TrEMBL record:
PANTHER family attached to this UniProt entry: DNA CROSS-LINK REPAIR PROTEIN PSO2/SNM1-RELATED, PROTEIN ARTEMIS
Name of the protein in question: Protein artemis
Classification via Gene3D superfamilies: Ribonuclease Z/Hydroxyacylglutathione hydrolase-like
A Pfam family it matches: DRMBL
């Protein structure tokens, strides 16, 4: 038996290119989210989720449930996280040009919001291993660099944690102009909030 189904791709906000799927057919409407990250009120602005002035009647939602667990009592907003990271990075990097920050990012994509905002607010480009992965995201290219002589690093190495323990960055830097670097590590991870009792 054949049935026509309309499939709409909606932005998931998780990493560049990520989408949610909205399936609409004679037997109803289904939303499959996969990994997603939407700010408060963002779904209300998605016209394709609405029919006229109201949300479409969705019979089933297949929801990514990574954080659907009581232990994730509170996950701060993206804005709250950015504010905290900005304050920490600014206070550290202002101590001297030899005070550097390593953003310990485990995934390749999904940190663009953080890189862009840190660079804009502090006027410091973020060091990454390669620019190739960002070629199709021109809005970030001004904020990242392959020049290791910057104070914010998001470079990666197969054994990142071993590098950090040896007080060197994954790109291999330990000194700049003969002066040892002072490195702090920030691990941007939502999982952290589920590992804390309060």
């Amino acid at each position: 038996q054949k049935e026509d189904i309309e499939v709409t791709l909606l932005p998931a906000g998780h990493c560049p290119g990520s989408v949610m799927f909205l399936f609409e057919g004679e037997n109803g409407t289904v939303l499959y989210t996969g990994d997603f990250r939407l700010a408060k009120g963002e779904a209300a602005r998605m016209e394709l989720l609405h029919s006229g002035s109201r949300v479409k009647d969705i019979q089933s939602v297949y929801l990514d449930t990574t954080f659907c667990d009581p232990k994730f009592y509170h996950i701060p907003s993206r804005e709250e996280c950015l504010k905290g990271i900005l304050e920490l990075v600014q206070s550290w990097t202002s101590l001297s040009r030899y005070h550097v920050v390593w953003l310990n990012c485990k995934a390749a994509y999904g940190y663009e919001y953080l890189f862009i905002n840190l660079s804009q607010e502090l006027g410091i480009k973020v060091h990454v291993n390669k620019l190739g992965m960002f070629r199709n995201m021109p809005e970030i290219l001004y904020h990242v660099t392959t020049d290791r002589h910057t104070q914010i690093h998001a470079c990666r190495h197969p054994r990142d944690d071993d590098c950090f323990r040896g007080n060197r960055l994954p790109c291999g830097m330990t000194y700049q102009n003969g002066t040892p670097l002072h490195i702090i590590s920030i691990k941007p991870s939502t999982m952290w909030f589920g590992e804390r009792i309060k």
